[in-house]
Amino acid sequence: MGILPFTPNRFPMLLQLLSEPAAEQAGVRLLLLRDDLTHPELPGNKWRKLKYNLQEARQLGHHTLLTFGGAFSNHLAAVAAAGRLTGLRTVGVVRGEELAHRPLNLTLARAAADGMELRFLDRATYRRKHEPEVLAEVLRVTGPAYVVPEGGSNALALPGCAELVTELRVLTAFDALCVACGTGGTLAGLVTGLQGPEQALGFAALKGADFLRSDIDQLTQAATGRTFRNWALHTAYHGGGYAKLSPELRAFITGFQVRHGVLLDPIYTGKMLVGVLDLLAQGHFRRGSTVVAVHTGGLQAWAGFGGAPTPLALG
C-alpha cells in the first residue's frame, strides 16, 4: 500500500482578505481560508476527513474502501483520488439506479478514471444503506471493505478537520470560523479544535437541516466523549435546497468571482458566503472581530449546472 499523501506540503495555507461593504460597515475583518488549495489532488476539506479513516483502514488490513454518494458527490471524487494515491481499491455506491444507464457525468467519470468501481443503487434502498442487512448485501457483492460513510463524516473524520484550526491559528487570531454543512462532519471537527472564546458557525446547504444539530453532538460525543456549545448552525441559507442553484445564488457567485478572483462552488461555499455577508449586514459579529470563512472546494459540482461562470461571462 502506498504512503498516505495527506500532508498539504505543496500548497501552504492561504488566507485572503475580502473587502466587502458589509464587513467594512460592520467593522469586521473578513478572511477567506482557501482550504480548496491545500492539497494538490484531493478536493477541499475531504482529505481532512479521510486522513485518519485511511490510516485506520490500513491498520485493520483492508485493501478496499467502500463509500456512498450522489451523482455529483465531492466525497466520491475524493475517495477515488485517495484510492489512486494510496493503491487502495475503491468502490462507490451511487444514489439512483437509473444513472447506470446514462453516460457518466464529469464527477463520476473522474472517479472512474481514478479507478473507482461504481455501483448504482435504487433510491429507496439507498435511503436504507445504514441498515445492517442492506450494508451486508452491498459487501456480499463487492467483497470485504472498510466502509466510509456518505460525506466521510464519522468520529475519525473529526481530528483531521480539527487540524485546520491548529494550522489557521498559526497564521492569525480569529473570533469566528464559518463553514458550509452537508453532513456536519467538518463543522463537528472544527468545533473540537477551538479554544477559549473562538466560535464556529455552520451554514446548512440543505433544506430542513435542523437534524444536523443532534448529528453534530453525536459526532463530537463519539470522537471526544463530550458535546460542545461553542458553535451555531444557520439553516436559512440553503437557497431552495441541496443542489438547487437559484438565479440569485448564481449571480452572487458570479459577482464574488468578479470582486475577488475566486470561484465558489454552487452547493456549499457559495451559500455559506451569502449567509456570512447577511449576518455581517445584520450586525451579528462584534465590531473589531476577525471572521474566517472556509472555502472547502467542490468546484467539480459545476458540471451539473451547465459549467462554471467563464471569464467572458464575467466581463
From TrEMBL:
Residues carrying N6-(pyridoxal phosphate)lysine: K46
Keywords: Pyridoxal phosphate
The UniProt record lists the keyword Transmembrane helix: no
Molecular function as annotated in GO: D-cysteine desulfhydrase activity
One Pfam assignment: PALP
Active site feature: S73 (nucleophile)
Domain Tryptophan synthase beta chain-like PALP as annotated: residue spans: 21-297
Cofactor(s), names only, from the UniProt record: pyridoxal 5'-phosphate
Source organism superkingdom: Bacteria
Family statement drawn from the similarity comment of this UniProt entry: Belongs to the ACC deaminase/D-cysteine desulfhydrase family.
Xref: PANTHER family: 1-AMINOCYCLOPROPANE-1-CARBOXYLATE DEAMINASE-RELATED
Protein name (record): 1-aminocyclopropane-1-carboxylate deaminase/D-cysteine desulfhydrase
Organism from which the protein derives: Hymenobacter perfusus
Organism lineage: Bacteria, Pseudomonadati, Bacteroidota, Cytophagia, Cytophagales
